[in-house]
Amino acid sequence: MGVAKHVKSKFFTGLFILIPLIVTAYIVYAIISFFEPLVAPLIKNSLARIAGRDIYIPGIGFILFVIITYVTGILASNYFGKMAIACGEKLLKRIPFVKSIYGSVKDMTDAFSSEKIKSFKETVLVEFPFPGRYAIGFVTKRIEIEEKRFCSVFIPPTPIPTAGFLIMVREEELKFLDISIDDALKYIISLGTSRIEFSWKEKTSLPS
Asked: Domain 115-189's class?
């Protein structure tokens, strides 16, 4: 291997290792930068009244973010919390410009929610977008159409599977894969570079 190829190969190897770390660090930094200026004066004033002098621990804004996120999760798990969140979402969706941003981000996060992923029953290969070409899809439901059994198959795009196609396919036309939903999603997000071995399994019928 020549020097140029060696440098190029190692550079891209390092780049793909560093990019996830840099993005993660940037998100954490953005959260801290957002919360610190908001909570710092309040906490300083509160501690000054209690202790009689200024006391502030850097990073407490991020800790507050974690606490708020946890409390939000608890509230969203009960009836009254869900009602409050639903009312808040309705209000946001009525505000021009804000509703477009919120709606797009909400759709993206909903696509990876545990409830949505649980609706994926099996991983399949389906002929798409035309015969002779296959795409990875997830069976979400089985239905009867004119006494024939069809599967609702969701086909996510790559590398960000937050939207996609929903098609109806005869069950016998699907190739069922013996891999988990999580592994299939990793394969899609990684542009097919994930080290996952595909294997066939006999078709099993699940309840609709």
From this structure: mainly beta
Residues 29-50, mean pLDDT to the nearest whole number: 72
Q: Across the chain, what does the average pLDDT equal? A: 76
Give mean pLDDT, residues 110-115. 58
Judge contact between 126 and 137, C-beta under 8 A. Answer: yes
Start-end ranges of CATH 2.30.30 in the chain? 115-189
**135 CB contacts (<8 Å, ≥6 apart)?**
125, 126, 128, 129, 155
Question: pTM of this prediction?
Answer: 0.50
Q: How far is CA 34 from CA 31, 97, 98, 121, in A?
A: 5, 21, 18, 39
What string of DSSP letters covers 109-173?
HHHTSHHHHHT--EEEEEE-SSTT-EEEEEEEEEEEETTEEEEEEEE--SS--SS-EEEEEEGGG
- The SS3 of residue 56 is coil
